[in-house]
Amino acid sequence: xxxxxxxxxxxxxxxxxxxxxxxxHRQEQLGAPPAGLARSNGRLELERxxxxxxxxxxxxxxxxEEGDEVRAGDVLAELSSDTASSRVExxxxxxxxxQETAARANAEIKAYEQxxxxxxxxxxxxxxxRRSELISDSELRKRRAERDSAAASVAAAKAAHAExxxxxxxxxxxxxxAASANDDMLIRSPIDGRVEYKIADVxxxxxxxxxxxxxxxxxxxxxxxxxxAPQVAQLKLGDEARIVLDSIDAVFPARISYVxxxxxxxxxxxxxVNERAKLMFKVKLKVPSATALQYKGLLKGGMTGNGxxxxxxxxxxxADLAVKLPQ
Length: 327
Known about the structure:
CATH topology of the largest domain: Elongation Factor Tu (Ef-tu), domain 3
Number of strands: 13
Number of helices: 5
Helix content: 40-55%
CATH class of the largest domain: Mainly Beta
């Protein structure tokens, strides 16, 4: 029995080595990309947008839940701010005051114009009487001074009215600015997208620039892959690419939208044929916006898969990498 046991163990070890070697060889055969193509694994990413507040305030309500589909302009959250409300009321009060000032100036213009009209009539009459020597030169000069004084009063009233009108315009601008700031207390979605996270909760006090909600842009889907320098050197921005996700029986079209200019250490989740390669370049494969939107309910951030690129334009896509969209 003691002699048989080592033999059995030896057979088992040999079988494990043979099977393991076959599996490794098989994996290498299956994993090798077709000639003229390069492949690397990655994860699907959706562009993330953190929506923040322009002004400080307290979160009054959060109207969007995680996972909600929202349209551009939809209100995601509402903030309250005594400062913003006070600015609106102060601007309204200022506009009311300058409007009253303008109204008084307008009334004064009419009164002074009537006074000027009477003074001009008296001056004309004084000229006629002086020609007949019915009044003295001093009386004529007096009438002329009264006319000039009335004309100056009209000019001053018109200047005051113009100043009041300018003040009204300034007050209106302040009121519009205050109203805009108050409207900015409603945090709106900048895009059609999907709510990923609620960053702020009701009752939170946020400073200017405080993040409220995180959105995902379903029109901006991409996968980052990592390739060695010799392969990256053959790529061009805009080149065709393919994305195959592990969980979907489909082949999505893509384009190379970005190639890193600096190499970086190989990430742990990147599988390379040449294990000696220590530095890799990031290449971004972007799915066309129309395709991403068409399958926005299917494509989700974090989905794993492989990205394929052509190393030269003459290389043909094999049949299993022809574009095949989900049905």
